[in-house]
Amino acid sequence: MKPTADHNERIAKMTFASVYPHYITKVEKKDRTVQELLQVIEWLTGFNEKDLQNLIEEKATFETFFQKANLNPNAHLIKGVICGYRIEEIENKLTREVRYLDKLVDELAKGRKMEKILRT
């Protein structure tokens, strides 16, 4: 499946604040912690908890979120299928970065070890 321009635009305009509570719910349902979620997000983006809170308060879109992020140089190692899309085949940079985050949250919720999630 290949993301359409409309799909990419919707992702770009979605706010991180609207998705973050769903990430928390997803990982907590599987007995993982918010601290682990924060660790995963910081590994990918460089944002600490205070940075995330500021982005939530300013209602940053994913476009702004990833423009401000310092993406981990090993992010390209995140592979697989998320939401029906093979991450490594997504051409749109922003959509691929959002799917990186989705994939990491999924791996955390599925009980994968942190060393594997953080590609160490």
TrEMBL record:
Source organism of the structure: Flavobacterium ponti
Protein name: DUF2200 domain-containing protein
Pfam families given in the database record: DUF2200 (PF09966)
